[in-house]
Amino acid sequence: MQYRPLLSAVGLCALTVWSASAHAQFADKRNTATLYLQAGVAERDARSLTIGSTIPMDWKTFWWGHPVTAHWDLSLSAWNSDRMEREGSRTIAVVGLVPTMRFHSKSQYPWFVEAGLGGYVSSKLYESREKRFSTAFNFGTHIGVGYFTGMRRENEWSVRLEHLSNASIKRPNPGENFVQLRYARHF
Q: What range does the record give for the signal peptide (predicted)?
C-alpha cells in the first residue's frame, strides 16, 4: 500500500518519457540538418559530384499561409570537364556556402520550392572546351523543387538549376549552368 504513490510516480515518469520519444520518432524532419549527395551536368561537357550539408537558420515566416524557412548550404564538389582533345579532362575542387530560402507547401503536402545565392571558391580556374572562367571565386544562384519521403519526411529529393559566374568582376565571364539531382537525409 505504501508503495502505490511511488509506483504511480514512476509509471507517470515512464509514460512521459515514452510519449516524448514517440513524438520525436514521428516528428516532421523537414527543417533539420541534412547530409546530401548531389550529381549534376552542365550544358555541354561538364559534370559535378557534390557532398554537403544543410544547417537550418533560426528563422521562419509564413507567406500566404505557407511556412518559409532558411538554411545554410555548405558543399564540397568535384567538377570534371573535357578540355581540348590533347589536354584530356580536368577535375577541380569547389567549396560553396549558400544561404537558401525554402517555401514549403502546407504541412500535409511534402513539396517545396527553394532559391539561393552564395559564393564558391575553386582550387583552379574552371575550364572546358568552350568556356574558361577568369576567377577562382564565383557566385552561384539556384532554384529548385523537391519532395520529402519517409514516415518522418527524413528523405529529401530535389532537382535544381544552378548558374555560376563571377558577376562580371573580371572578363571573360562565360558562366556555367548545371542541372542537379540531390538526395538529402535529415537528422
A: 1-24
**The three grid cell numbers given for residue 109, joined into one nine-digit string:** 503536402
Compute CA 155 distance to the chain's CA centroid, rounded to the nearest angstrom. Answer: 12
The three grid cell numbers given for residue 136, joined into one nine-digit string: 577562382
Residue 25 pLDDT greater than 80, yes or no? no
- Give residue for cell 583552379: 124
State how far the Cα of 75 lies from the Cα of 77, in Å rounded to an integer.
6
pTM summary value: 0.81
Q: What is the pLDDT of residues 95-109, one digit of tens each?
A: 999 999 999 987 677
Contact status, residue 122 vs residue 94, Cβ threshold 8 Å: yes
DSSP string, 161-175: EEEEE-TTSSS----
Per DSSP, 151 falls in state: T
SS3 8: helix
